[in-house]
Amino acid sequence: MPTNRSLSTSQAVLATAVVWGLVAPVGAAPANPAPALAIHGFLQTAGGGPVADGDYALTVRFYASADSVEALHTDIVTAKVGHGAFGVALGQVVPLKTDSLLSGEATFVGVQVGSDPELPRVAFHTVPYAFRAQVAGDLDCTGCVTDAMLDPAILAPFAKQAELAGVALSGKYADLVAPPTLPALVPCAEGQVLRGFAGDGSLVCVPDALDLSVGSAFALSSQECKVGQFVHTIEADGKVLCGDAPTYDGSHFALSAQACDAGAFVTAIAADGKPVCAATQAPVTGSCPAGSAMASIVADGSVTCVSTAKKLVAGPALVEPGKSLTLEHNLGSLDVVVSAWVEGGDGVWDLVTGVDTASGAAANVAAAANGGKCIGQSSAHSGGGVDSGYGCSKAIDGNESDGDGTAWATKGQGVGSWLQLQFAGSYAITKMRYKQRSCACEWNRVVRLEFDDGSTQKIELGNVLGPADYALQAVTTQKVKLVVETVYGTTNNGAAEIEFWGAEAAKKIRVRKTADTVTVVNQTSVATKLHLVVSP
């Protein structure tokens, strides 16, 4: 609960807002509610602004004076505060001591917010004495005028004599007097489209400027050139124009078999793809020093070199299945420069070459029958381990029924519950199949999957019993942890059955480098020809 709260008394809020309820009944009069006292106030912070909206526990005490030690009455209520203001009714839990209030003995009220010190007391004014007005309502008087004694003619001037309009009784449009004239909604003519509505409600139509009937601004479908012809252009009406020669003329590309004359050198490539030559003296040296490479040739025929030269370490080299090739180098620190290779850290690069399985078919690799097992869980309804009555191993036993010994059920868990599965090996998984427990009151909704490589995927389960299939982004892993993030309902959530489908993990070619060697290991089932390049 926020601290530093106080009651604003700058406008005597408590003194003017105190209102008494009804007093207790007398004689045989009908029972009235117990007397109540309404108090309104304002809670503000020490800085003068209103406190945060919410429910606040208030202790209200009445005192005989501003410095009295003992309270004449104490009541504890919960006040709903909005923008600092509140209002509460006292006497509904602890009956009010009306004698003290009517006699004028209670003259001050003190309010305490939660466990904070009591706020400065506020003096009562005369409003509480209106409590005596209730006594008049309970008097057994003689000569009182009741409603039965009144002549109905006295009330006649105040009664409405005119009859209601017909539409007030029927609600029909036809019963309206002088109804508005509604325009006839005539549709737009052919070739026009609706643009808006006029002031009288009629349609405003304009010609349809976009005519798609002839393919305007769009390429018409099924437009092809004859065999031996090529597309040159597509006209504004979408038609294709064909020609006998291809449209490519080498523009903006270097044309092949273009050379400079003897004694001249290439200085640039023109827009038509032809080389621009200059008759300059040949450079004194046409090579760059070791560890660098030629970057360009300047107008005088000399070369510019850069220090990022790549040195061919090995290749093409044939590496047999299961064998390795170790190459020595003297480059110190180096990087492997091969497309599609993935750096795994610690000087290791991997190149995935594809799935290599005996049959190539995917299977439920999480199934206990295929070597899968559950190695951890957040809880089990039976209170036992993973293999007990409701343990997580029951979610991969191949039995999709829901019950003791056939399904995983947590002990009162929903959000935050989890289980972890381990496969017989590393598999490239692409699909999850999930069947909920039988009662929708304990169905999971969003689950997070965590894999060996640290990656995660979130799957939103359908609001269905299942089993239902959910596609995954292909990932190679030997373990998967399933964590529940949101649910449709919570009782003893879990799963009747969970499956993960995949094939044997892809085999790899691995490169490991040290300060003076590069080792290539072929982990595939076929000989692989490598063209390996490293750079300092």
Question: What is the C-level CATH assignment of the largest domain?
Answer: Mainly Beta
Question: Could you give me the name of the CATH homologous superfamily of the largest domain?
Answer: Galactose-binding domain-like
Q: State the shape.
A: extended
Q: Largest sheet at a glance? A: 7 strands, antiparallel
Q: How far is the first residue's CA from the last residue's CA? A: 64 Å
Total count of helical runs of at least 4 residues: 5
Any idea what the CATH architecture of the largest domain is? Sandwich
Low-confidence stretches are 1-31, 212-217, 352-360
Q: Into which percent range does the helicity of residues fall?
A: under 10%
Record field, number of beta strands: 33
Helix-strand blueprint:
Elements: E1 6-7, H1 13-17, E2 19-20, E3 37-44, E4 54-63, E5 73-81, E6 85-90, H2 98-102, E7 108-113, E8 122-123, H3 133-137, H4 152-155, H5 166-170, E9 192-197, E10 203-207, E11 230-234, E12 240-243, E13 265-269, E14 275-278, E15 293-297, E16 303-306, E17 311-319, E18 324-328, E19 335-336, E20 342-345, E21 348-352, E22 363-364, E23 373-377, E24 408-409, E25 418-435, E26 444-451, E27 456-460, E28 468-487, E29 494-495, E30 497-504, E31 508-513, E32 517-522, E33 528-535
Antiparallel strand pairs: 1-3, 2-3, 3-6, 4-5, 4-7, 7-8, 9-10, 11-12, 13-14, 15-16, 17-33, 18-32, 19-33, 20-21, 21-31, 22-30, 23-25, 24-29, 25-28, 25-30, 26-27, 26-28, 31-32
